Amino acid sequence: MHSSPAFLFQYLSTPDGLSEWFADNVNSRSDIYTFIWGDSEEQAQRISHKTNERIKYKWLNDEDDKDVYFEFYIQVDALTKDVSLIVIDFADADEVDESKMFWENQISELKQTIGA
């Protein structure tokens, strides 16, 4: 990513930033985020974060009561100062390819949004 960690982190951690690339709209109250896509809404709780480095969200309305989450890591190479974004997402075995495609599209949208 051609971006500073601080600039990138605001697109991963704030409702306004997430609304620009991840969902149609995002609202938050405290650590609960509501992601809106068309007529669909999903809620997630921010369960951990370290400013400019990582943030983890847990989906709240999973019917199977599994620990379903997604996480972003910003990694900076010590020598080159290159910035990488690492996405960790829960997916059932039969959903892995679909999940990869989803994240590739979303990250492409993020890169376009921030000019990276």
Architecture overview:
With 116 residues, this protein is an alpha+beta fold. The protein has a single domain, classed as Alpha-D-Glucose-1,6-Bisphosphate, Chain A, domain 4 (2-Layer Sandwich), CATH 3.30.530. It has helices spanning 5-13, 15-19, 96-114, and strands at 25-29, 32-37, 40-50, 54-59, 69-76, 83-89. Strands 1-2-3-4-5-6 form a six-stranded antiparallel β-sheet. The chain is globular and about 45 Å long. It starts with a helix and ends with a helix. The mean pLDDT is 91.
Number of helices: 3
CATH architecture classification: 2-Layer Sandwich
How many domains make up the 3D coordinates? 1
The CATH superfamily is identified as START domain
Strand fraction band?
35-45%
Strand arrangement, major sheet: 1-2-3-4-5-6
Cα gyration radius (Å): 14 Å
Q: What would you call the shape?
A: globular
Give the biggest beta sheet: 6 strands, antiparallel
User: How many DSSP E strands?
Assistant: 6
Unreliable segments of 5+ consecutive residues: none
CATH topology: Alpha-D-Glucose-1,6-Bisphosphate, Chain A, domain 4
Structural class computed from helices and strand pairing: alpha+beta
CATH class: Alpha Beta
